[in-house]
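for the recovery benchmark. tokens below, seq after
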């Protein structure tokens, strides 16, 4: 994961992701920092996240290696799912599903060797799931969606088969 990569226009226009304009190899860390401490202004500017270096430990590599994500989650007491874009710019995944969902949970989008924070997964994938424009409460594991948060919670606690699926 290296430097800033602009989001595809189709994804950018949904305003569901924060893509920090970094010039270094820390896009993973910038994405996590933007999720942990959301900025009210200049959300895509590195100056809005001065604490990014607090996330990096001596044992961590820059850029972040996928093999170190479990250690990173444990070190910072958070959980991370990673979604990707297919060749038609549709969101697929999760391509990396956390083993332990914690109270601080972050969804990241990985594309062209770059990470950005998904601040609203429902908005990001809504139109690829259904033409219905109502808010969808989305299961991040199996990508089923529900009309209410109560139905989603019921699904997650009892009936989700916890199988990773790819949306068509």
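predicted aa per position
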């Amino acid at each position: 994961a290296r430097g800033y990569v602009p989001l595809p226009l189709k994804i950018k226009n949904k305003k569901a992701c924060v893509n920090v304009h970094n010039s270094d190899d820390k896009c993973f860390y910038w994405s996590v920092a933007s999720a942990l401490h959301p900025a009210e202004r200049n959300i895509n500017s590195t100056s809005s996240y001065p604490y990014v270096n607090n996330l990096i430990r001596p044992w961590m590599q820059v850029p972040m290696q996928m093999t170190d994500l479990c250690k990173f989650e444990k070190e910072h007491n958070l959980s991370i799912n990673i979604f990707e874009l297919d060749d038609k710019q549709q969101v697929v995944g999760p391509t990396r599903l956390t083993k332990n969902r914690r109270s601080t949970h972050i969804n990241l989008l990985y594309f062209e060797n770059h990470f950005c924070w998904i601040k609203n997964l429902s908005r990001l994938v809504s139109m690829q799931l259904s033409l219905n424009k109502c808010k969808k409460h989305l299961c991040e594991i199996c990508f089923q969606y529900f009309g209410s948060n109560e139905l989603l919670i019921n699904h997650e606690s009892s009936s989700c088969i916890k199988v990773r699926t790819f949306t068509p």
